[in-house]
Design brief:
Largest sheet: 5 strands, antiparallel
Number of helices: 6
Structural class: alpha+beta
Number of domains: 2
Distance between the termini: 54 Å
Strand order of the largest sheet: 1-2-9-6-7
Keywords: Membrane, Transmembrane, Transmembrane helix
Number of strands: 9
Transmembrane segments: 84-109
Order of helices and strands: HHHHEEHEHEEEEEE
Protein name: J domain-containing protein
Length: 241
């Protein structure tokens, strides 16, 4: 896609310098205005899905333009590439049911936490640690992980920089707060296309090292193949206190 057409689609003025933050903000705004979840099944939903693909192509075109040799030579050299990517749109977290190993928390694109909570119930989860609707907190007694840990879910983009640009659909952003130190913390991620799934259709495991109890441990992950992602289990593989 031509960068000028991409700017027009994302409503970025021609004279506005390109930045990753600006591209992502424009993408998020336009994506949420006509998110497919806002439309019932039918022509409206299909049109919104097509528009989503167009927005993604526009974003990709501008990201490529941003990293082109011409633009790169005109801005300060950085030791690391820009890692920011579009985060989950406002209110992107959905809590759904429970799994055998603990509370199953689905983070769904484009749906407000309040709307979904009204459908499936809040359970006994505690309120967020801030006044922001963009943070949801669940204490260790609520999550039921094998290695006790509280969980916070974020829709404010605080960990955008930790999301790989390989994930065109963005990343789910969260943090664990363990109740003890752990040298190697195994975090099992679950994925599904079904909002009502009680078990993941696919899993992945990440290992986080030298975890200190009570300190926020970011867990930022993506998977363009699935609509829903969550932390399915947390275990200490080595060095648990």
């Amino acid at each position: 896609m031509d960068p000028n057409a991409a700017r027009e689609i994302l409503q970025i003025p021609a004279d506005q310098p390109l930045t990753m933050e600006g591209i992502d903000a424009a993408y998020q705004h336009e994506f949420w205005l006509r998110h497919p979840s806002r439309y019932p099944a039918g022509d409206g939903r299909r049109a919104a899905e097509a528009w989503r693909d167009t927005l993604g192509a526009a974003r990709s075109a501008l990201v490529a333009e941003l990293h082109s040799p011409t633009l790169a030579s005109s801005r300060p050299r950085r030791s690391l590439p820009v890692g920011a990517i579009v985060g989950i749109v406002a209110g992107a977290f959905v809590v759904v049911g429970a799994v055998v190993a603990g509370l199953m928390i689905l983070l769904a694109l484009g749906r407000s936490a309040e709307a979904v909570m009204a459908e499936v119930g809040h359970g006994n989860g505690d309120a967020a640690t801030s006044d922001s609707d963009d943070v949801e907190r669940y204490e260790a007694r609520d999550t039921g992980f094998e290695f006790p840990a509280a969980l916070e879910l974020y829709a404010d983009g605080r960990y955008n920089g930790d999301c790989s640009t390989a994930y065109l659909e963005g990343c789910w952003q969260s943090a664990l707060f363990t109740e003890a130190d752990c040298t190697e913390l195994e975090v099992t991620l679950g994925f599904s296309d079904r909002a009502t799934a009680l078990r993941p259709d696919a899993t992945d495991t990440v290992v986080l090292r030298d975890v200190v109890h009570g300190r926020a441990v970011p867990v930022v992950f993506g998977n363009d193949d699935f609509d829903y992602g969550w932390i399915d289990q947390v275990a200490c593989a080595a060095g648990g206190a």
